[in-house]
């Protein structure tokens, strides 16, 4: 019965299996940036096509970035050192301007990486335009490098770094001038940091530099073998070693993300740090089989374990228990619960043994001196709401209680279509299985369970934090503009409060009920 209920709910609120909605076809997406109320990413294609989103969930195409450049194409110096293609850009904000680095290959491995400097990324901004500052690095078709796939990092010391390269040679590192975006010292030889890869990018966290690269082959649809691998170093110049101690310049690389299910060939990592312990990453899949095998954008949670980044998975519709990471108790309707399998009486064992006589009662007492033989009974079926919900009130509060697999503790989490979302995910409804009793934020930041209407206070944002727990927040609370999160005040009282990334009160575990 529960499986049928789940199917009906997910069918009623069906969304694409991919974590994003709208126009998401793109190849080699840049790091996603947020500017003037919108998210932006750029991809490979004529003039660097733009994808933009107001909420990070529903995306649309918005022309091309080169339309903001006088002449609508790369400048003559870039064309001379590379070619008239525009591939695989990356973007970063430094100060009050954006640096957009892009690949301009000719006949590979002759290529250049050009730089556009844009005061604004919004095509609607007054005087919207970008300045072409020419080539930053290039390859001549003879050397052991291919100047494509730029990845840029501004480190904690304010130094700006660029990695680039592909399978034609090494992945290389150069330092940039954060004032101009160009090479700090054009005469200094680039540092080789990896081989047998492309689409490199750097991260920095807690004293470590991480180099993420894309291995495998691209551009063959569902036959592509792209996967993302990584190494780390205490110095930005390397050496970058994987978890086995193998240098990436010798072919090392710890696996970060690979093909799985109907999404083939992940590549082109980009960090999206949303603050308060929520990090996500963008990428593209070479082929999304649910969308005809095209290359598409995705956003997924980024977790951290044992000093390494871990690729998280977007939440899918299903039946869950919602457990407080702080108290170990689970969210439930505030109703009188009934034990799973009914009330049972212990017989035959010593006090506290838990031994229960099962099976049909005997016609009389056992013979004097005969030992008691406990029996294992058949499995106890899951408790269905129809068995116990007859006396549940229409509107109820919610509370925290020990996990007992009771019907009021089973929640269906399902996406809601047509109400927008946030980076990488839609809004969800959280409903007791087999009912319309949905978790609802009330005035003053309290909670109840009431019939689902689709109101903003019944729509929930569920972000996975970097430690793997979840933050659960209502889209809005009546008569409030504050940002709230589900919070465990004690072992039995849930409420809403401001999220504190240093506390366990707003951290939740989602598991099988």
UniProtKB/TrEMBL annotation:
Keyword field contains Lyase: no
Coiled coil: none
Pathways per UniProt: Glycan metabolism; L-arabinan degradation
A molecular function (GO) term: hydrolase activity, hydrolyzing O-glycosyl compounds
One GO biological process term: carbohydrate metabolic process
Family annotation (Gene3D superfamilies): 2.80.10.50, Glycosyl hydrolase domain, family 43 (2.115.10.20)
Residues with site note (Important for catalytic activity, responsible for pKa modulation of the active site Glu and correct orientation of both the proton donor and substrate): 149
Active-site residues, Swiss-Prot/TrEMBL: 28, 198
Keywords, sorted A to Z: Glycosidase, Hydrolase, Signal
Residue span of region Disordered: 341-368
Signal peptide: 1-19
One Pfam family this sequence matches: Glyco_hydro_43
PANTHER family named in the record: ARABINAN ENDO-1,5-ALPHA-L-ARABINOSIDASE, ARABINAN ENDO-1,5-ALPHA-L-ARABINOSIDASE A-RELATED
UniProt family annotation: Belongs to the glycosyl hydrolase 43 family.
UniProt-recorded name of the protein: Glycoside hydrolase
Organism: Steroidobacter agaridevorans
């Amino acid at each position: 019965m529960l499986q049928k209920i789940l199917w009906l709910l997910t069918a009623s609120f069906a969304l694409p299996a991919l974590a994003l909605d709208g126009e998401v076809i793109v190849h080699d997406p840049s790091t996603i940036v947020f500017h003037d109320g919108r998210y932006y990413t750029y991809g490979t294609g004529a003039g660097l096509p733009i994808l933009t989103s107001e909420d990070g969930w529903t995306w649309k195409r918005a022309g091309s970035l080169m339309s903001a450049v006088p002449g609508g194409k790369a400048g003559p110096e870039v064309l001379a050192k590379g070619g008239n293609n525009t591939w695989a850009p990356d973007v970063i904000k430094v100060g009050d301007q954006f640096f957009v680095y892009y690949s301009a290959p000719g006949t590979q491995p002759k290529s250049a990486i050009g730089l556009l400097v844009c005061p604004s990324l919004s095509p609607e901004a007054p005087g919207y335009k970008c300045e072409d500052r020419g080539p930053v690095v290039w390859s001549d078709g003879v050397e052991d490098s291919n100047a494509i796939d730029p990845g840029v990092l501004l480190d904690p010391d304010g130094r700006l770094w660029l990695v680039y390269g592909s399978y034609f040679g090494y992945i290389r590192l150069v330092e940039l001038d954060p004032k101009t975006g160009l090479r700090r010292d054009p005469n200094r030889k680039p540092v080789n940091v990896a081989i047998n890869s492309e689409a490199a990018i750097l991260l920095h966290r807690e004293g470590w530099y991480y180099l993420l690269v894309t291995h495998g082959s691209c551009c063959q649809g569902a036959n592509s073998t792209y996967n993302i691998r990584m190494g780390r170093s205490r110095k930005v110049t390397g050496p970058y070693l994987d978890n086995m101690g193998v240098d990436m310049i010798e072919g090392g690389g710890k696996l970060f993300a690979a093909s799985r299910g109907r999404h083939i060939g992940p590549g082109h990592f980009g960090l999206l740090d949303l603050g308060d312990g929520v990090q996500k990453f963008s990428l593209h899949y070479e082929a999304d089989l649910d969308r005809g095998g095209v290359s598409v954008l995705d956003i997924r949670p980024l977790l951290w374990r044992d000093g390494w980044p871990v690729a998280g998975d977007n939440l899918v519709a299903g039946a869950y228990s919602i457990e407080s990471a702080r108290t170990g108790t689970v969210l439930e309707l505030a109703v009188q619960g009934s034990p799973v399998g009914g009330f049972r009486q212990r017989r035959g064992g010593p006090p506290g043994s838990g031994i229960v006589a099962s099976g049909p009662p005997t016609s009389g007492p056992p013979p004097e001196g005969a030992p008691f033989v406990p029996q294992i009974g058949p499995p106890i079926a899951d408790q269905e709401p129809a068995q116990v919900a007859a006396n549940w009130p229409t509107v109820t509060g919610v509370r925290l209680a020990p996990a007992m697999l009771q019907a009021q503790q089973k929640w269906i989490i399902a996406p809601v279509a047509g109400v927008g979302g946030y980076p990488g995910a839609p809004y969800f409804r959280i409903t007791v299985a087999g009912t319309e009793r949905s978790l609802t934020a009330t005035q003053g930041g309290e909670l109840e369970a009431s019939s689902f209407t689709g109101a903003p206070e019944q729509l929930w944002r569920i972000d996975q934090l970097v430690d793997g727990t979840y933050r659960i927040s209502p889209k809005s609370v009546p008569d409030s503009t504050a940002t709230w999160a589900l919070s465990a005040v004690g072992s039995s009282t849930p409420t809403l409060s401001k999220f504190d990334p240093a506390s366990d009160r707003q951290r939740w575990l989602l598991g099988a009920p």
